[in-house]
Amino acid sequence: MRSVRARAAIGATLVVALALVGAGLAVLMVLRANLIDQAGLEAEVAAREVAGQLALDVPYASLDLGDEDLHPVQVTDGEGRVVAVSEDLEAVTGTATPRVTPVPPAPVASPGDDDDDDGGDDGGVDPARGKVSTDDPDFSNGTATIDGETADYRFARVEGTTSDGVTLTVHAGAPLATEQEAVGTVRGAMLTGLPVLLAVVAGVTWLVTRRALRPVEGIRRELAAITASEDLRRRVPEPDSRDEIARLARTTNETLTVLEASVERQRRFVADASHELRSPIASLRTQLEVGAAHPDLLDVPGAVADTVRLQGLAADLLLLARLDAGERPGRTAVDLGALVREEVSQRAGGRIPVEVSVADGALGVTGSRGQLARVIGNLLDNAERHAESAVAVAVTRDRADVLVEVTDDGAGVPADERERIFERFVRLDDARSRDDGGAGLGLAIARDVAGRHGGTLDVGRAPQGGARFTLRLPAPAEGRAGG
């Protein structure tokens, strides 16, 4: 039962089997009810014919009881005594009494024997008063034995009243052989055809499911081959159909593409990180070895600078690792105006003066204060590194967003390089020393943090000709209302 084809075939077969059994039972019940009603109607007609004869005062011995093989008849009086039966009826069940031997009727006084009758008063009985009951007859099932053969019958019970006011009950039967034969024939046909039909359903379901799942097996085999070879450049086959399996194949290939890019990016990251770490570690080791051999030649400031640079690079790599792992920013309220002033104050007395402009009003955002401080610090570091004489920072409000713009008067960023500079370990100043140019992680970290805070980070041209970095972050809902 581990096969989808087997489960689908068995499930479809069970559903069809239940549906067919239910429908078959319903058909048999309706057919049986209709045939029984037909037999009851036939028995009622026979009973009313006999009751009509009784209403016309036909003597019991002269009653025309019809064909006893088709309609056995039993007539009883008010006391349950049998007064007339079909000629060859030997036994009966399902009627008022199982007796089939007629008994002499009780004597009934005739109208002419009444001494008080003068022939014209109401004491006389009009023969026309005999009648047949118009009520719906009662039906019952029973058996009748005729000429030694017993069969099932549907009996109708009808009352008839003679002109003398004697009420008699007529039980007439109609054979149920037709009903039994028809129901048996239909039941046999169903029992014969059901297994064949279920086998066809199971086979068709198996074949259709097998054909439908054939592309899935191809996808599985290709994924197994990719797992074994670790070659993420391979792709699973995409069927020409437009169904769920085709969409699954396309989604799988898209996932493989993203995974391939992620693995390639991770490989480049590891390679670049190893390369960037090698330089300060080698420099620091060289200085320490020289200092150990010649203490008077130890460059302590250089060793400290290399250590600081190594520490900063390790911190950047650690932050990138946390971001790649899906670390979510906090939900702390941060005033970007105050944060910018704080970051600029830490650079007082630097090579390039920084001009700060903070607009009035609500400039708060929600996020991680430490990560946002890292973004602003990286933007200021980049601007000071490339500026000629001035760096400016402006914090303003733009509808539902808070903007932080960092501009410099340097050479700017070429238009075709404005997206590339946000990639990791990318530096446009490769001709400069690593100490001056950095490791190429600052802007990548800044954009990643901005995106995780629901914002954006873009670069353009400043009015004075340098670069202008624009950090856009969404303000909280209450801040939007107040702004």
Output the keywords.
alpha+beta, 483 residues, seven-stranded antiparallel β-sheet, 9 helices, Heat Shock Protein 90, five-stranded mixed β-sheet, 14 strands, rod-shaped, Helix Hairpins
- List the uncertain runs: 108-127, 430-435
Count of helical regions = 9
Provide mean pLDDT, rounded: 83
Biggest sheet features: 7 strands, antiparallel
Helicity level: 40-55%
Alpha-beta classification: alpha+beta
Q: What is the count of distinct domains?
A: 3
SSE arrangement, N to C? HEEEEEEEHHHEHEEHEEHHEEH
- Terminal Cα separation, in Å? 64 Å
- In terms of quaternary structure, the protein is single chain
| Proportion of beta-strand residues | 15-25%
Notes on the structure:
The chain is of the alpha+beta class and 483 residues long. The strands form three sheets. Strands 1, 2, 3, 4, 5, 6 and 7 form a seven-stranded antiparallel β-sheet that branches. The model is unreliable at 108-127 and 430-435 (pLDDT under 50). The radius of gyration is 53 Å and the shape is rod-shaped. The chain has nine helices and 14 strands. The two termini are 64 Å apart. The protein is 47% helix and 18% strand. It folds into three domains: 1-105 and 127-231, no CATH class; 244-324, Helix Hairpins (Orthogonal Bundle), CATH 1.10.287; 332-482, Heat Shock Protein 90, CATH 3.30.565.10. Strand 1 and strand 2 (82-85) form a beta hairpin.
Outline:
The chain is built from nine helices and 14 strands.
Write the layout of secondary structure elements.
Blueprint: H1 4-55, E1 73-76, E2 82-85, E3 89-92, E4 131-132, E5 138-146, E6 149-161, E7 167-175, H2 177-229, H3 244-293, H4 300-324, E8 332-335, H5 336-345, E9 354-358, E10 364-367, H6 369-386, E11 391-398, E12 401-408, H7 434-437, H8 442-452, E13 456-461, E14 467-474, H9 477-482
Parallel strand pairs: 9-11
Antiparallel strand pairs: 1-2, 1-7, 3-5, 4-6, 5-6, 6-7, 8-10, 11-12, 12-14, 13-14
Helix pairs in contact: 1-2, 3-4, 4-8, 5-6, 6-8
